[in-house]
Amino acid sequence: MHPSSRLPWALAGVVTGVAGLATSYAVAMMLTIRESPVVAVAELVIRLTPGAVAERIIGVVGQLDKPLLVAGILVFLLAMFTLAGLMARTSWVRPQLVWLGLSAIGMVAVLVQRGAQAVDLVPVLVGLVTWVALLPALTAPLRMGIDHPELESRERRVFLMVAGVLGVAAVGVATAGRVVGAGRRHVVESRRLLRLDEVTPPEPPPGASIGVRDVSPWQTPNDDFYLIDTAISVPAVEPKDWRLRIHGMVDRELVLTYDDLIARGLTEAWVTLNCVSNEVGGGLVGNAWWSGVRIADLLEEVGVRGDADCVLQTSEDGWTCATPLTTLTDERDAMLAVAMNGRPLPLEHGFPVRSIVPGLYGYVSATKWVVDFEVTRFGDVAAFWTQRGWSEQGPVKIASRIDVPRSGADVDPGPLEVGGLAWKQHTGIAGVEIALDGGAWERARLAEAPTDDTWVQWAGTIDATPGDHSLRVRAIGRDGDVQTGAVADVVPDGATGWHTVEFSVRDA
Ligand SMILES: Nc1nc2c(c(=O)[nH]1)N[C@H]1C(S)=C(S)[C@@H](COP(=O)(O)O)O[C@H]1N2
Ligand SMILES: [Mo]
After folding, report:
1. What is the extent of the structural domain holding 305?
2. What is the pTM of this model?
């Protein structure tokens, strides 16, 4: 047999494979199961990846990590589909083993998800049936061609026609499923129609801006706010379906609906949120006007037992974090936020409800799509990132950043306005100092911050003389803490070190 005849067999495998993905995707969408099996597998891979490895990968590919992972899985699938098609030339059984193997991976991935139900297996089974039934049907004309060489070219035309029709049908089925499911679009619509009467629009305090061009704005717009989470597809939670269960070491368990929550009245505050994975000088930090319900009041309502020391928070997609009780019950107004910068939470920032706790990194506090509060003890639980080598406790470390000049900038000689931001939430910033070319620390000017829970802009003027220079910054907390220059990695509890930028001054 001439080698070119392999091609249609490979094509048959790919068309069958894609058709099976399409039917399983369509069924998942129609049953409004949150994820297709492929996405479930991607989430399983994320769960199984050791924290340090994940961190390094994110360091290299940045926010592209998830699209790359899904793309990688699809490439792997295409290879397996091709293999199954080629196997079908000589064996009836072996391609079925490929389909069974792939389905088994899909089933495991679906079943280990939080709150998995038997119905979640349906999309995988539909995909499997599609695969098993379609490949023999599709390859029948090719087999005819082998058995009756005189018919080969005719059979091949038949095959190509059938494959083409199936390919189009697969796309059609997937699209139809999307249209029928449309769960996410409903939530987008619910969010658009949602009226939160008590939410007031953000008004940054007049003194918050230092007035230096290109320093990041004191208020971070929602669209520019960094995004960090392990969810491949953004959970779509309708406010009317949302519940928060508060249970564990409490006197009276409580299940709140969205309306129950809002009925308790809103508190509002500027709070800066940052990620423990933020590198020195990095952008995984933002400041927003949050509106929500005080967690302290809710915990008082349920009656927390004396020997509890944390709340294990769980999100709709099964992510967890453990937050110290003291930070949820003291005067800092930790909240279940429903609005961000005066608008209902964007879906990707946790709609309809997320936690915000001033003074803690997001990974131990800021649960998006939060659905469960278990009052418990640190000794009895292990949260998502803690299981992966990050610290149990995550108070934010003092930090400062230079926004102007940018690293590598070319500037004119003369007086140069420099500036940036500094933060140590729930302690506050007392001062910022800058040093040019490793010289003495000089005091920078500080803008105003409404509370100790936000970052503060700073600025300074330096004398820029022609040549290459470096500028570094450090902050001093209201508690007297001077930001250390000792370099520490983001793992296990946040980076330290002075942000330094290199820049050049042109000749006069
Ligand atoms: N459900 C869920 N909530 C989560 C996370 C997550 O992976 N899943 N990541 C946390 C981390 S590590 C951070 S830094 C903040 C980021 O919040 P943002 O994406 O709104 O900026 O969310 C926290 N809440
Ligand atoms: Mo984070």
Report:
1. 222-388
2. 0.80
